[in-house]
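--- STAGE predict ---
source: upstream dedup step, 1 unique chain passed
mode: sequence only
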Amino acid sequence: MGKYDRNITTISIWDSLENRDNPPGCLVDTSIGQHKYVKLKKVKLHYVEAGNKDQPLMLFLHGFPDCWISWRYQVPFFAEYFRVVSLDLKGFGDSDKPVSRGQYNLETILEELEQFIVALGVSSCILVGHDIGNLETILEELEQFIVALGVSSCILVGHDIGALLGWFLTKQNPHLVEKFVSISCSHPNVSWNYLPSNGIHSSNWIKFVQCPGLPELDVMKNDLKIIKDYHQYLQEKYTQDKEILEAYKYTLSRKEDWSGPLNYFRTLPFHRIRGNDQIEVPTLLVTDYREHRSLPSPRGS
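--- STAGE serialize ---
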């Protein structure tokens, strides 16, 4: 064994992967919205858009390991009242996937988001984020994206890393965000201090992710089992759920597909909001009871 152990491990990982040459139908479905691309200064981003362009912009940011399709139910619902955009964050889905860690700094990502929103041609938006690089790069690109949408502000909805980016974007550019909804991600000055000890997003997992190269191989074990573990609400016995799982696996079916997503966790945990950490924009934090129990008690309670 000895020096050949690594090769044997790599071969077993490739043997466990199914071939995924064509995207599942749900990834290219136009009934949810129109698939569009925008070329910013240094990156091309993919997004799905629905609704009336004359309405306020609601921007959805997904989490990890995810893509635009995580908002497949919210997009058509809110499209009756808003101009809705579900973005593939850089490194995910059909957006550009640079592998360099330096492409994921916070400043750049935020700038790209701002450019994107402006390019949409709106003055403000509602930002919704779900989960999370160098952080400066990420924020710079988010700003560019917002600018590219041609708007001046939005309603921002984020989950997981998408929500974490939303906290920084809202604090740094309050003129861009009319309202902010954070799902499963508390204030960044709190969230990194109360991580679980085991599982995805745990403190031990984030420490492991700092290793170069090895985490990209580890996540591909057992035909990308990490995706099924993360999206436990999806049951393969149901045809629609199985197709969504396959969509996630298709977008993350190559080793290089994981470098960008993992780079977010190689940089973002080291960032906090400095100085006055108060968010002036109206903000809604949505968590489940398990996340609520893991947070500290309010001051003075």
